[in-house]
Amino acid sequence: MNEMTEPTRTLPLVFDEPRGRRKPPQHLADLDAAGRKELLEKAGLPGFRAKQLSTHYFSRLVDDPAEMTDLPAEHRDQLVEQLLPTLMTPLRTMEADAGTTRKTLWRLFDGALVESVLMRYPDRATMCVSSQAGCGMACPFCATGQGGLQRNMSTAEIVEQVVAGARALARGEVAGGPGRVSNVVFMGMGEPMANYKAVIGAVRRLTEKTPDGLGMSARGITVSTVGLVPRIDQLADEGIPVTLALSLHAPDDELRDELVPINTRWKVREAVEAAWRYAERTKRRVSIEYAMIKDVNDQAWRADLLGDVLTSYGDWGWVHVNLIPLNPTPGSKWTASRREDEREFVRRLEAKGVPTTVRDTRGQEIDGACGQLAAHE
Q: Which domain holds residue 267?
């Protein structure tokens, strides 16, 4: 068996969460429709109630059992306890950009802290969700990476972040009036591919038709990774046309070994080649995420090298580069690139025929960089 298809047990220990932690309570979002029915029946409750609970959760976005009036009053609390336990509690919600950006710090059942961000634009509303409490990838410019990995999140804990955002939009709590979540990006705390099973479970819940899921389009979901090559190949086989985002941050191994330590396991060429295979198999354009760090990775020659690396796999439009002005963390030596260096980087990539955009920066006044709120708490 070659490295591209090796089983999970051979992956490095950095992928594994600490042992001995209690698991989150099981929630209907952890299960498919058949699993929910079976769980209720094992508890001595009517299986058909599972669909009613799913309708309240995914379709009506209800979080108050008193509103579930189609459930018999004598069994309501037990039904909710079985399939809708409380997974996370909001500790703080901060707003920016005239109320169109909302960042929430959540406390999970075991005290772990995670963050999610809702960003509303004129044409869409995007939820940025966490997939792990902390992160084991140890990228030095990332606030989350400096705290290490506490644990993986469950499928339901991931989904609940999106549902909470959907509730806020539906209730008109976000500037701009009532709306709905149209996009989800797995770019919050954690490395999604290191919690693969739960992340794929969450993607399936988000895309399953209501009332079994939220009924979102897979094309509105982006899953990011720092380059876990076997997982990228596995994702390509799932049959779910999500967008893959490869967090590259450097086109050369010497620098990327420092910025993205997993590069010592899978080099730049291996990670980019896996992304290209994903694009080939799914016919979905891959996004290359590149944090622009002043005097570190923003030199013009690195733009040329990045363009050469990406175009060496073909020019059929398989890739797009998303430059991210670094949102610096307090006390960090890393800071955002100069605007003139950013513009030259874009110019050189476009000259190589690589579509390039600069990400709209949001939430800097509310500790917008991922992991900052949790670190302060």
A: 129-361
